[in-house]
Amino acid sequence: MIPSIHSAWRTPLMTLIGLVVVLALVAVLGRVTSARTLAGIDLTGRPDVVISLSFTPERFHLEKFQDVGRYQGWSEGQAVILSSDPEELRGLARSYWIGAIEPHEVAQ
Amino acid sequence: MTNATNDLSKMRRRPMISTAQWRGVLGVASVLFAWQVSVWVIDLPAYFYPAPRDVFAAFIDLTQKGILPEYVADSAVRYSVSVATGLGLGLAFGLLIGLSRFWSRLLGPIINFFYAIVEVAWIPLLVIWIGYGFNTIVIAIAYVVFFPVLYNTLTGVQTVQHVLINAMQTLGATRWQVLVTVIIPSALPNIITGFRVGAGFAFRGLIFAEMIAAGSGIGFLIFDGATTRQTDRVVVGMIMMGVMWLLIDRLLLRPVEQATIVRWGLVRNQGGN
Amino acid sequence: MNNAIQMPPKPRINPALVTGLLPFIVVLAAWAMAPLISDIPAYKLPSPAKVWGTFQDMLLNGSLLSEVWASLQRLATGYILGNLIAIPVGLAIALNRAVAETLTPVLSFFQSIAGIAWVPLAIIWFGVGGGSVLFVIVNTIFFSSIYSTVIGVQSIPLVLYRAAQSHGASRWDVITTVVVPGALVQILVGLRTSMAYGWRALVAAEMIAGTNGIGYMTLEAVQWYQTEIVVLGMILIGVLWLTLDRLLFVPIERVTVRRWGLVS
C-alpha cells in the first residue's frame, strides 16, 4: 500500500519541484545577467539609456519601455528612454530578450 | 475486483512506452501531416490558413521576443490564484452547508440560483464594476471553481458513513477532530472530483476572460493575433492552451485524483458501501 | 424551535422555504437601497426598478424575444448537429481499439481547446456574425461529445466482448448489444457535459463574435454603460440555463438512475 501512495504522488511532486527549480534558475540567471547588462549605467539618478534589440519592438515591448521612462522612439535597432526609473530598468535588464543597455549621450 | 483490462494494463507497464502511447504519437503525427496536406490543397495565404511551418516560426519568434513566456506565466498565475481561491471557498461552504441544516436551508437556494448564472455572464458586469485585469479575472474564475467543489464536497460530506462518526464520538473525539479525521478524509475523493471538474471549466473560462478583459496571457494572444491578422500567432496560442491543459491535467489533476482514490478508495471498500 | 412561536396551524408554510428566500430578500433589499446608503453611481448599479422597467420595455418592443430566440436557435442547431455527427463518428472510431488508441490523444487535445479558443480563428475565416458563433458551438459540442463517446466505448470491459463472441455474436450484434449500451452512460454524460460547455460557448462567442443574441446584448451594453441591460442579460442567462437543465437533463438523469442505478 505504501509504495502505491508514493508512486501516485511522485509525478505532481516531481513536477512541482522541477518547476520551482527552473523558475529559481531563471530568476538567478536574470539577476546575474542584469548586473552585467547594466554595468555601464549610473543607477543613482534617473539615467538616459539606449536599449538595443535584435528585433523590431512590438506593442508588448513598447509598453514596457513606457513603464521604464520617457520612451523617445525606435530607430536602427535602438530605443531611447529618457529619465528612466532605476528599479524598472533593473527589471527590464533581467529580460533575456534585451540586447544591450548603454548610457545615452544627449547630442548637443 | 479482478478485471481482464486491469491485468492487461498492469502487464503493459513493463515496456517504457506502451503500444497505446506509440499509437498516440502516430495519431498526432498524422494530424500534423493532414494539416500540411490541407495547406497545400487549400492554397490560401498564410494569414488565412497558416501551415505548420508558419506556426512554428511564430512560436520561435514569440519566444525570442520574450512575449510567449510572459504570457504563459501570466495565465498560469491567474489560473493558480483563481483555482486556489475557488477551491478554498467551495470547500469551506461545502462543509458548512453539508454539516449544518440551518446553513443548508439558508444558503442552498441562493447558491443554486447563482450557479445557473455562468461565469461568462458575470464578466461584463465585473468589467463595469472593477475594470479590466487581474482582479476581474480572478473573481470570475474563482466563481467557476467554487460551485463544482461546493456541490461535490456536499455530496462527500453527506455520504460519510455514520458508523465512523459514531465510532469517533464514542472514543471521545471533539467536533473538530471528527471533522478532520473522519469527514474530510471520507469526502476527499468527492472533493477532488469537484476540483477536477471546476479546474476544467476554469481553464476555458480563463482563456475567454483573457480575450475580453486582459492585456496579456494566452487568451489575449489568441485574440490579439486575430485582431492583427497574425493567424500563425492565433494557432500558437491555441496549441499553447492545449499544452498547458495537458500539463495541468496529467501532472497535477490526475495524479492527485489517483492518490486520493487509491488511498481512500481502499478504506471505502473495506468499510462497505 | 417552532413550538415557541404560537401561530394558528398553517401546514403549508414550510420553514425551509422561508429561510431559503431570506438571502434573496436581503440581496434585493441591499440592491434597492444601494443608492441611498452608498454613493455608487447609477451607471454601475442600476436600481431593480430600472432593470424591471427595461425588461418590460424590451419585452414589449419584441427585441428581448428576438435576441433570446436567436440564441436558442443557434444553440439547438449547434447541439443537434454537433452530437448527431460526433456520436456515430465516435462510435465508429472506437470500435477498432487500435484506431481509438491512435486518436485518443488528438481528440483529448482538441477537446481541451474546443470552443472559445476557436472564436478568433472563426472571425478570421467567417467574419463577425452568426456563422462564426454557430461554428464555435458545433465545434465545442462535437469535440466534447466525440471524446466522451470514444472514452465510453474504451471503458467497456473486454470480458463483455468475449462473452458476446463466445455466444456466437456477429460484429453487428456486438455493436448493438455490447458497445452501444456499454458506452451509453458515458454518452449521456457527454450529452450533458457538451451542453454545459456549449452553453458557455454560445454566450461567450456571441459576446466576442456575434451580432445578435443574449451574449451579444449583454456585452454590447457595456460600451454604452447600459448596465441595466447587462444585469437583465445576466438574469436571463441564468433563467435560461435553469430551464434548459430542467427540461433536458433531469429526465435523462432519471432514466439513467432508474435503469442502471447510477448517480452521475
Automatic annotation (TrEMBL), chain B:
<feature type="transmembrane region" description="Helical">
    <location>
        <begin position="201"/>
        <end position="222"/>
    </location>
</feature>
<feature type="domain" description="ABC transmembrane type-1">
    <location>
        <begin position="72"/>
        <end position="252"/>
    </location>
</feature>
<dbReference type="GO" id="GO:0055085">
    <property type="term" value="P:transmembrane transport"/>
</dbReference>
<keyword id="KW-0812">Transmembrane</keyword>
<feature type="transmembrane region" description="Helical">
    <location>
        <begin position="79"/>
        <end position="99"/>
    </location>
</feature>
<protein>
    <submittedName>
        <fullName>ABC transporter, permease protein</fullName>
    </submittedName>
</protein>
<dbReference type="InterPro" id="IPR000515">
    <property type="entry name" value="MetI-like"/>
</dbReference>
<keyword id="KW-1133">Transmembrane helix</keyword>
<dbReference type="GO" id="GO:0005886">
    <property type="term" value="C:plasma membrane"/>
</dbReference>
<dbReference type="Pfam" id="PF00528">
    <property type="entry name" value="BPD_transp_1"/>
</dbReference>
<dbReference type="InterPro" id="IPR035906">
    <property type="entry name" value="MetI-like_sf"/>
</dbReference>
<keyword id="KW-1003">Cell membrane</keyword>
<comment type="similarity">
    <text>Belongs to the binding-protein-dependent transport system permease family.</text>
</comment>
<feature type="transmembrane region" description="Helical">
    <location>
        <begin position="111"/>
        <end position="131"/>
    </location>
</feature>
<feature type="transmembrane region" description="Helical">
    <location>
        <begin position="137"/>
        <end position="155"/>
    </location>
</feature>
<feature type="transmembrane region" description="Helical">
    <location>
        <begin position="176"/>
        <end position="195"/>
    </location>
</feature>
<keyword id="KW-0472">Membrane</keyword>
<keyword id="KW-0813">Transport</keyword>
<feature type="transmembrane region" description="Helical">
    <location>
        <begin position="20"/>
        <end position="42"/>
    </location>
</feature>
<feature type="transmembrane region" description="Helical">
    <location>
        <begin position="234"/>
        <end position="253"/>
    </location>
</feature>
From TrEMBL, chain C:
<dbReference type="InterPro" id="IPR000515">
    <property type="entry name" value="MetI-like"/>
</dbReference>
<dbReference type="GO" id="GO:0055085">
    <property type="term" value="P:transmembrane transport"/>
</dbReference>
<feature type="transmembrane region" description="Helical">
    <location>
        <begin position="107"/>
        <end position="128"/>
    </location>
</feature>
<feature type="transmembrane region" description="Helical">
    <location>
        <begin position="16"/>
        <end position="37"/>
    </location>
</feature>
<feature type="transmembrane region" description="Helical">
    <location>
        <begin position="134"/>
        <end position="160"/>
    </location>
</feature>
<feature type="transmembrane region" description="Helical">
    <location>
        <begin position="172"/>
        <end position="191"/>
    </location>
</feature>
<keyword id="KW-0813">Transport</keyword>
<keyword id="KW-0472">Membrane</keyword>
<dbReference type="GO" id="GO:0005886">
    <property type="term" value="C:plasma membrane"/>
</dbReference>
<dbReference type="InterPro" id="IPR035906">
    <property type="entry name" value="MetI-like_sf"/>
</dbReference>
<feature type="transmembrane region" description="Helical">
    <location>
        <begin position="197"/>
        <end position="217"/>
    </location>
</feature>
<feature type="transmembrane region" description="Helical">
    <location>
        <begin position="229"/>
        <end position="249"/>
    </location>
</feature>
<keyword id="KW-1133">Transmembrane helix</keyword>
<feature type="transmembrane region" description="Helical">
    <location>
        <begin position="76"/>
        <end position="95"/>
    </location>
</feature>
<comment type="similarity">
    <text>Belongs to the binding-protein-dependent transport system permease family.</text>
</comment>
<feature type="domain" description="ABC transmembrane type-1">
    <location>
        <begin position="68"/>
        <end position="248"/>
    </location>
</feature>
<protein>
    <submittedName>
        <fullName>ABC transporter, permease protein</fullName>
    </submittedName>
</protein>
<dbReference type="Pfam" id="PF00528">
    <property type="entry name" value="BPD_transp_1"/>
</dbReference>
<keyword id="KW-0812">Transmembrane</keyword>
<keyword id="KW-1003">Cell membrane</keyword>
